[in-house]
């Protein structure tokens, strides 16, 4: 699968960041500004993904987000996969929050 990709440390601030992980992964730790739409719900919730700006897609390690990126580009969105996912995001020291106020981690 050939999809546009960017390293987590190079994702610009202020972009539309789409997290396609499962709810338990999201709750454990995510980027503060990310929008959560699990991969399995993406087709039904496509209207929540902007069509006028690039969408940066992240999952845990990059596999699900690559699938989502390919599909989003196929349906006319401009999407970029975040290589290495939230594991790379955390390793790069990018900000993270957890839903329950505990210390965020990548589930």
In words, what does this structure look like?
- 23% of the residues lie in helices and 17% in strands.
- β4, α2 (63-74) and β5 (79-83) form a beta-alpha-beta unit.
- A five-stranded parallel beta sheet has the order 1-5-4-2-3.
- The protein has one domain (5-91): Oxidized Rhodanese, domain 1.
- By secondary structure, it is an alpha/beta fold.
Average pLDDT confidence is: 95
Total domain count: 1
What are the secondary-structure elements, in order, as H or E? EEHEEHEH
Strand fraction band? 15-25%
CATH homologous superfamily, by name? Rhodanese-like domain
Widest sheet, order of strands? 1-5-4-2-3
Count helical runs: 3
Number of strands: 5
Radius of gyration: 13 Å
Structural class: alpha/beta
CATH architecture: 3-Layer(aba) Sandwich
Summarize the biggest pleated sheet.
Answer: 5 strands, parallel
- Per CATH, what is the topology? Oxidized Rhodanese, domain 1
Parts with pLDDT < 50 across at least 5 consecutive residues: none
Estimated helix fraction: 10-25%
Under CATH at level 1, the class stands as: Alpha Beta
Which of globular, elongated, flat, extended, rod-shaped describes the shape? globular
N-C termini distance: 25 Å
């Amino acid at each position: 699968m050939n999809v546009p990709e960017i390293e987590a440390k190079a994702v610009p601030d202020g972009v539309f960041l789409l997290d396609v992980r499962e709810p338990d992964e999201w709750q454990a730790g995510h980027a503060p500004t990310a929008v959560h739409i699990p991969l399995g719900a993406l087709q039904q919730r496509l209207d929540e993904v902007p069509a006028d700006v690039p969408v940066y897609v992240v999952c845990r390690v990059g596999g699900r987000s690559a699938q989502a990126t390919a599909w989003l580009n196929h349906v006319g969105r401009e999407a970029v996969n975040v290589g290495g996912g939230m594991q790379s995001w955390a390793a790069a020291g990018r900000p993270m929050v957890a839903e329950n106020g505990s210390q965020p981690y990548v589930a």
